[in-house]
Amino acid sequence: MPNLRTMVTELGTGLGMLGGQDLDEVLATRSPVMRSLSPDNWDLLRSIRSGGAFDTEFHAAWLNGRTFLEAREGLRGRRPELVEWKGAVRASGDEVAPVDLRIDHVYLVSCKYMSDILFNVSPSHIFDSLLVGGLAKRRRGVGGDWYAEVAPIQYQELFDVVRTALHDGMMTPLAEEGPHGTVGSPALPGLESTARSETNGVVARHSASTLRDLPARAVDLTAADRAALGERLKSGWPGEAKAAYRELSDEVARVSVSRWHTALSAGTNTGEAMLWRLLRMGSAPYFVLGSSAARSLRLRIATPWDWKQLFRLVRLEIFPQHGGQPRVGWMATVRERASGQLREVSGHVEVRWSHGRFGGLPEAKGYLDTSHHKVPGYFPLQ
Fold it and tell me: Which of 79, 133, 135, 382 allows an S-S link to 19, with CB 3.0 to 4.6 Å?
């Protein structure tokens, strides 16, 4: 099950396409057009709505759905016969489009509310495999640990500092846990939840001896070791570990850029194809309905076929960036074929542990830095 905010925005968008005049009335009818919803899904959605915590999200999603219903490039006023919700099902095969809703087996819709995230994959999948094979493919390196593979010396040095701090008692104790998770965790207004988070459930099973008995080598960390470290390091790095982490970040970014350049140089016309994959363009057009901090997002995403008729890639630059996690920036310069005008689109990839410091294998999260409506190939919904 996706988180509640995601559920509201995705299903609220679909409900808006049904053509009703009032959201609450549509919710009450439990339309069979919304084929993927179980009775429990409907019950939860009504509970969230009555709780009032996500009124803003409901409203934005509802308006986007109604806009798509009337749009010339959308449903043109024809009420759909089938709205399918992907929910928490992971992408399968070679899917490129981040589809959340499918309308009448034809219209593919991605619901993107207050998010600039393009993808979340293993670092090897972008820097070595160039996102080929879709985002469901997650090729791993040595043990899946990108830090150990590309910056083994800096990685071990950071671990040595942290391990010494733990042994010398320089770290604060684990957060106190109550019967329903970590004390102080906020409850969702209007809803009750007694479920503990997965991380808290894992940490609760570990004693202080887990951290005292950490292996000498970072590459030998077990899943249990990582869970305990991730929880213990939530409050920040101890002492000299901050400097060690900066050195690790710089080296990971540098080598990641080098690996990416090497992979790109191995083929022909890989620059354009790389840009299309970064921007989540695939063989079928789809729509993005959502909102950013400044405006509503109602876009049609072009296919590479469409894109090549309108634009030409001039250059694709890749470079390390400083600050926080290991970070790799990219910038594409694109020329409009009709006008000759140059346009730029940029983004970055952050490499980070999946569950806090040392608390999981590294993942690569891609972000779009250019506003969606300024991206070549992202067209306003007509």
Answer: 79
